[in-house]
Amino acid sequence: MTANLAKRFDSATAGLTRVIEGLERDLSQPIEGRGVGAMAGEIRAHVKALDEGARMGFIQKAIEAGDDRTCGAVLGGVPYLSGITPQMQEILLRLYHEKSNPRAAKQLRAAKAGLELLGDRGPLIFKEMEKAVGAKQAKVQQLRAAKAAAEKSFVV
To answer: Which residues of 55-70 are buried (b: 16+ CB within 10 A; e: fewer)?
Structure first.
């Protein structure tokens, strides 16, 4: 019974891990095709001309406002053209995806919470099963094997 339960926990953990990896991949995808054109170049030049604090504020306001044109120009192009680092582009891109796809962001948070819960609470079930049976799983398996061997010797 414990082995069956362990398989189910492993299966649930593997499933949640796959879901998390897929959602992480979706929320980290680059913005393709929005960073081209004359308007995009002007937006990037404007953003690059701002000082660093104002630049980050401008981009974050565009993300919050759902301004796809500005976000596409800044986050869809090469980061140095907008005066941001690749790391900042990665973080801002993640914020943009979370804002534009809140359902996936909520699913990701729920899947991570579920995985954490499985990791925290899973071992407790096995301890409680040992308490209920009164012996460790290895001892139970030894007793079952001995019983099966004894029953086998009586079969003619």
So the answer is: bbebbeebbeeebeeb
